[in-house]
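Good morning,

Attaching, inline, the backbone tokens for the sequence recovery test we're adding to the shared suite. The designed sequence is right after.
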């Protein structure tokens, strides 16, 4: 794709030096104590006119101070880095005005939303610099934590890495009636986890090696809502956290520093049927979880993360064969939680959260197979980072790979013959996970999902229902949500037709 002069300038500004740095290098955020108050993205509730809620989003080329005295070139939406949290009401009509001033073409995709393909914001809904896009849709889904992000073909990794992402909170009547924390920024807080690598000039470093291309881009510093080394003062004894893994490639195993048990209450597509008591939760890129942590003991605690080894063999190959392995098993402190005075009652979570019927396997119209591949042979040797494919084909905007009939249910079988795990994501639907290699998933995976981890050598079966919205010309995407894999072609297109 030819770069316009403007977009070339944009890229230059993002990668070039901006400030001469004194003493700032690869500071380990986790070794610092105290840190900075957790930034809470501003929340947009929309302005009601003509029966619809209107939202305005402007993407721009900005600078952000993640570290004192250092300007990092970033993209932001209505701000310097990341975007506001959009609060949507189930059943309402939504109109969004998206303006693009980042200096190059982009898109904005509503990840997890069920909506018409023309409003999806995937690679076909391009917005040129200086132009705007006005999707409209009805919120036909249950309460959930979703997100939005750039989806420009071959540029998604770069654009999201520099800040084009934000959260969506859908609320509905059943969920607001539940006795759950729901005071945004107070006892109901968003946590957008993103690992980043800073160059010595303060700019983000993006993809500089074969390892970055093959394994996806990972960093050695953790940003939470764009905050390095974040802490949060909790005023309640129950804290709800809406966690988004907004990283390009890193998986996180999240725990608390004292090993405390917490309640997992929601997955990608909404509340689980009942809370699930756990000590750890794994999130792959694009996955979300809502959890409730009990702070009634009044003790400070930290959320911590480690990186599961999801790519053992690749890791070893990277180290051994090419000697460029980096970004291994970093541990991060995600967030220091400091309870303030005066909590007493212990934190109770409702025993029943939602009605979720078990997957119904009657009347399956079709079963489709998807095989993920990384072109480990020739492509890797050529040094291009391999040819990333699904069913042997790399993404082609002009090729519709699958055609689905509206009003039907299908089973999609995702196979991963590669040596690393891939988070597989499907637009338009919230699906159910039927099994992994024939085994029923654990309680955390029994709810609605739009992204699923497919481990090395594994086959995962998904149940999808295509309830409405048809468009014979405009496709939805399915892809690996390691953004460098997506950009390198591990993505396909499907239409839903009448
Ligand atoms: Cu989160 Cu196709 O996207
Ligand atoms: Cu999506
Ligand atoms: Cu992948």
């Amino acid at each position: 794709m030819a770069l316009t002069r403007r977009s070339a300038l944009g890229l230059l500004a993002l990668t070039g030096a901006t400030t001469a740095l004194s003493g700032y290098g690869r500071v380990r955020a986790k070794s610092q104590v105290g840190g900075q108050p957790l930034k809470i993205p501003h929340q947009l509730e929309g302005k009601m006119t003509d029966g619809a809620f209107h939202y305005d989003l402007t993407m721009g080329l900005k600078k952000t101070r993640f570290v004192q005295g250092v300007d990092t070139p970033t993209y932001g939406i209505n701000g310097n880095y990341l975007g506001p949290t959009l609060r949507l009401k189930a059943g309402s009509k939504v109109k969004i005005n998206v303006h693009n001033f980042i200096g190059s073409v982009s898109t904005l995709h509503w990840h997890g939303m069920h909506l018409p393909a023309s409003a999806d914001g995937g690679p076909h809904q391009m917005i040129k610099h200086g132009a705007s896009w006005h999707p409209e849709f009805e919120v036909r889904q249950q309460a959930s934590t979703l997100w939005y992000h750039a989806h420009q073909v071959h540029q998604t990794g770069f654009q999201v890495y520099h800040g084009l992402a934000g959260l969506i909170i859908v609320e509905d009547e059943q969920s607001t009636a539940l006795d759950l924390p729901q005071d945004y920024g107070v006892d109901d807080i968003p946590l957008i986890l993103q690992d980043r690598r800073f160059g010595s000039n303060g700019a983000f470093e993006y993809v500089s090696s074969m390892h970055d291309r093959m394994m996806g881009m990972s960093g050695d510093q953790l940003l939470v809502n764009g905050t390095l080394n974040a802490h949060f003062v909790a005023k309640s004894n129950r804290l709800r956290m809406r966690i988004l893994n907004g990283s390009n490639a890193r998986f996180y195993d999240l725990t608390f520093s004292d090993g405390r048990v917490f309640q997992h209450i929601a997955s990608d597509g909404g509340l689980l049927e009942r809370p699930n008591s756990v000590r750890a939760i794994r999130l792959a890129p694009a996955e979300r979880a809502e959890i409730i942590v009990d702070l009634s003991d009044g003790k400070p605690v930290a959320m911590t993360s480690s990186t599961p080894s999801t790519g053992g063999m690749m890791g070893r190959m990277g180290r051994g064969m090419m000697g460029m392995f980096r970004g291994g098993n970093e541990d991060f402190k995600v967030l220091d939680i400091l309870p303030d005075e005066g909590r007493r009652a212990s934190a109770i979570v409702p025993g029943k959260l939602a009605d979720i019927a078990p997957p119904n396997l009657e009347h399956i119209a079709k079963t489709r197979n998807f095989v993920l591949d990384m072109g480990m042979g020739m492509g890797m040797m050529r040094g291009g980072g391999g040819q990333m494919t699904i069913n042997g084909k790399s993404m082609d905007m002009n090729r519709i790979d699958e055609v689905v009939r509206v009003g039907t249910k299908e089973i999609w079988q995702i196979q991963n013959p590669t040596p690393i795990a891939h988070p597989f994501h499907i637009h338009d639907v919230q699906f159910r996970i039927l099994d992994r290699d024939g085994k029923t998933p654990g309680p955390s995976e029994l709810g609605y999902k739009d992204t699923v981890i497919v481990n090395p050598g594994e086959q995962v079966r998904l149940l999808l229902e295509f309830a409405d919205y048809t468009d014979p010309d405009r496709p939805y995407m399915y892809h690996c949500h390691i953004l460098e894999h997506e950009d390198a072609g591990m993505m396909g297109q499907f239409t839903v037709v009448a």
